[in-house]
């Protein structure tokens, strides 16, 4: 992001300490472009939800600042920040109609019934749910519930919508449908979305900007393409999947599983640069491709051995020269396919 472009959210040295020891969020710096879809991603315990709660005002910062459109909101109450939160599986009140769910926060603010219902109706119309305003959540499909939850979050007119694992409780089929819908709403509304997920696939599908966190710090910020193709660290390469971390004389490099070529042992060029000998320990048929699992030669393979290296071969490449478990092969990669991994 251009350093001078307006940021919807800017986080400066943000830190959260719950107890002694390493902070849950450790002095992070981040700028999230206005009108973008940002995914905070990382393994369990990395600090992504804490970061979101700090931005929402559901946690107080131990140190650092949070700016929303250049306004310092670090110490403001949640309701005065200009953010709204959408929770896991939408968290609608089961006993309230769609309309009352959407109007709820205005009721809490003491807004009169006619006014809050008119505003809620307006928003339900906007998300194509006006005709179902009287239904209870259990009478709505997952997609319809998501739209009600979105309307409920939008009623406070937030500048930034915060989404905490909104899709994680849904079955896989619905999750894919719902994420496409979230993406469409974000573009249509032109709002900034910050979405926490532990799913690499979800973040890749949704994000303009991915923020990969680990142990309370940011490992990498970039577009899905940048993060996937140029992982900045060994952690990111391993966490994103689809990569091998290979020791070379120049240090560790990351190489995508589909960027490794396999040569049968009788075609191997001994000690050539950008090559490695390996023993095939698994062959998995996956439909459009075949996944080979490999170990360093000489490793004794047991049922619990996990592959050190994975290679994805297209079905046709594998059909032209099938490989078998126990075969020793040479792996080869183009120098430009290998990315140095500093740590
Ligand atoms: N209220 C709390 N009190 C004490 N420690 C906490 C609290 N909330 C979170 N933590 C700790 O802070 C760290 C970061 O937690 P956080 O919930 O932000 O991680 P996360 O990446 O969102 O994980 P998950 O995907 O499991 O929700 C963890 O070590 C967690 O145990």
TrEMBL record:
It holds the Pfam family ABC_tran. Signal peptide: none annotated. The keyword Ligase does not apply. GO terms for molecular function: ATP binding. The keyword DNA-binding does not apply. Residues 9-240 form the ABC transporter domain. Gene3D superfamilies: P-loop containing nucleotide triphosphate hydrolases. SUPFAM superfamilies: MOP-like, P-loop containing nucleoside triphosphate hydrolases. This is ABC transporter ATP-binding protein. It comes from Rhodoferax mekongensis.
